[in-house]
């Protein structure tokens, strides 16, 4: 699989500065799934082309095939060595990291300058055909050319395949072009991203910042990602454990410690989980979700209730899910228990078909970790699409903070909290959401109630109306 980038910007040698690669050199890089070669097939006065060629090591891929549980012929015979897939994205991020970040030490102004660029991908498997290809790239103002390849030259009646040679032309900064390719290449692909880790997929999402949110197909692009995310198996989680963590996640863990320390005298966390558990039980739910399950403390409680036939925990943090696997002693669970509970890596910001159609969802101490401008996305995903019959949301009551002796005045209980609401703020949010999506809502305090400032935790219980017009 080959990605070529051509510019007619002059002097053409600027491309070498931007890519941090000298036009006279042929360079090779070892990657976990093979080798990437980087070279310049053409450098003339007026044109310069740079190419990134991937040479997959199929033996390594097969050796790694424990990530796809059924070892089968598919592991040996597939299109992976020939098409641009998520592995191309990984190669872009490894080989062209500085260029994608838009850093150029020698010529900083050049990195943000729009220059005429043409990217050619040979070949891209396009699920959805040329129309989808255009619908993805044209809103980003690319001039798209797509040449499809027949299934077999000798049998024209078999028609066209889903493989295309694609050129994308635009006057744009190189960093932007690379970020677009990095995020979008895997979106066209039909296969699960077998051979790369979930963490690498996470990075794909972060590269979408700044343009994905305003893209008309943002939902479809995002959905295709999430669809490609496999349920994390125990084996995968073990593999991920060895990988280096993003620094942010370590910091989060320390902060979690702080939160527990402050609240310990009341063991508020246990009271919260006990209350949520009884509300869920009373709702008669059989299939329950714990959204933002963290390290799985509530999941462990949910597992003690035999009426819950299916229990799914979702969290955006791989580290938290790993800890949940440990906490639940997942490895040693008898098979019938293991079948009841599943952990999914996912974000509450994006619609996810895997969690639709459940009876109840608990969202315990999660919303205050979400950026306020993104709450609308969260609301719409939860109440419009996931749409469980019962939703239980808990969040700190900010008014109570003055009762925590160890908490400095005005501080939040946790460094990662983006806000903490008073009772009025929480209730006006919840009342509005309930009305908008056809739910009723009631409120319960959790923890000791203070006559002045209320209880430390506030809880809203939403019930879906049978007839939303009521
Ligand atoms: N519900 C758990 C954990 C609360 S801490 C408990 O009661 O103990 C908040 C959790 O929300 C963290 O595990 C964090 O990783 C998760 N989280 C934050 N933003 C998220 C998002 N957008 N999608 C899914 N989980 C998220």
Description:
- The chain has 470 residues and is an alpha/beta fold.
- It folds into 3 domains: 2-194, 2-Layer Sandwich (c-terminal autoproteolytic domain of nucleoporin nup98); 200-242, no CATH class; 268-464, Rossmann fold.
- It has 17 helices and 14 strands.
- Strands 2-3-4-1-5-7-6 form a 7-stranded antiparallel β-sheet. Strands 10-9-8-11-12-14-13 form a 7-stranded mixed β-sheet, sandwiched between helices.
- α7 (174-188) crosses α9 (218-228) and α10 (234-241) crosses α14.
- It is elongated.
- The N and C termini lie far apart (57 Å).
- The structure holds S-adenosyl-L-homocysteine.
Largest sheet: 7 strands, antiparallel
How helical, in percent, are the residues? Answer: 25-40%
Report the sheet-strand fraction. Answer: 15-25%
Instruction: Write down the domain tally.
Output: 3
How confident overall, as mean pLDDT? 81
Q: What CATH architecture of the largest domain would you give? A: 3-Layer(aba) Sandwich
- Count of DSSP-assigned helices: 17
């Amino acid at each position: 699989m080959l990605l070529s980038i051509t510019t007619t910007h002059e002097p053409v040698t600027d491309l070498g500065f931007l890519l941090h690669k000298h036009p006279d050199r042929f360079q090779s890089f070892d990657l976990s799934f093979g080798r990437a070669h980087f070279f310049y097939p053409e450098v003339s006065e007026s044109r310069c082309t740079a190419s990134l060629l991937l040479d997959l090591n199929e033996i390594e891929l097969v050796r790694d095939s424990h990530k796809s549980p059924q070892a089968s012929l598919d592991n040996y015979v597939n299109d992976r060595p020939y098409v641009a897939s998520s592995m191309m994205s990984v190669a872009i991020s490894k080989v062209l990291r500085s260029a994608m970040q838009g850093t150029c030490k020698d010529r900083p102004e050049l990195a943000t300058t729009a220059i005429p660029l043409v990217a050619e991908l040979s070949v891209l498997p396009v699920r959805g055909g040329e129309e989808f290809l255009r619908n993805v790239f044209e809103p980003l103002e690319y001039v798209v050319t797509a040449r499809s390849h027949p299934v077999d030259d000798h049998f024209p009646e078999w028609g066209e395949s889903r493989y295309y040679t694609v050129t994308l032309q635009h006057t744009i900064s190189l960093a932007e072009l690379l970020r677009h390719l990095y995020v979008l290449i895997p979106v066209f692909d039909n296969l699960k991203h077998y051979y790369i880790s979930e963490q690498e997929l996470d990075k794909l999402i972060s590269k979408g910042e700044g343009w994905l949110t305003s893209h008309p197909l943002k939902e479809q692009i995002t959905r295709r990602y999430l669809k490609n995310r496999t349920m994390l198996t125990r084996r995968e989680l073990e593999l991920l454990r060895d990988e280096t963590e993003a620094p942010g996640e370590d910091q989060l863990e320390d902060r979690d410690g702080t939160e527990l320390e402050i609240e310990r005298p009341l063991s508020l966390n246990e009271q919260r989980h006990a209350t949520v558990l009884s509300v869920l039980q009373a709702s008669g739910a059989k299939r329950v979700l714990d959204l933002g399950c963290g390290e799985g403390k509530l999941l462990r409680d949910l597992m003690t209730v035999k009426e819950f036939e299916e229990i799914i925990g979702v969290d955006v943090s791989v580290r938290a899910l790993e800890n949940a696997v440990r906490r639940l002693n997942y490895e040693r669970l008898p098979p019938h228990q293991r079948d009841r509970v599943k952990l999914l890596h996912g974000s509450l910001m994006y619609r996810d078909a895997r969690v639709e159609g459940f009876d109840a969802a608990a969202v315990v101490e999660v919303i205050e970790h979400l950026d306020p401008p993104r709450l609308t996305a969260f609301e719409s995903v939860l109440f419009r699409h996931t749409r469980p019959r019962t939703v239980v949301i808990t969040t700190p009551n900010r008014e109570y903070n003055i009762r925590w002796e160890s908490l400095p005045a005005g501080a939040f209980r946790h460094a990662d909290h983006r806000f903490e609401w008073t009772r009025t703020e929480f209730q006006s949010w919840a009342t509005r959401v309930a009305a908008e999506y056809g739910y009723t809502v009631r409120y319960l305090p959790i923890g000791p109630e203070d006559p002045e400032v209320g209880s430390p935790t506030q809880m809203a219980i939403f019930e879906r109306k049978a007839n939303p017009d009521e």
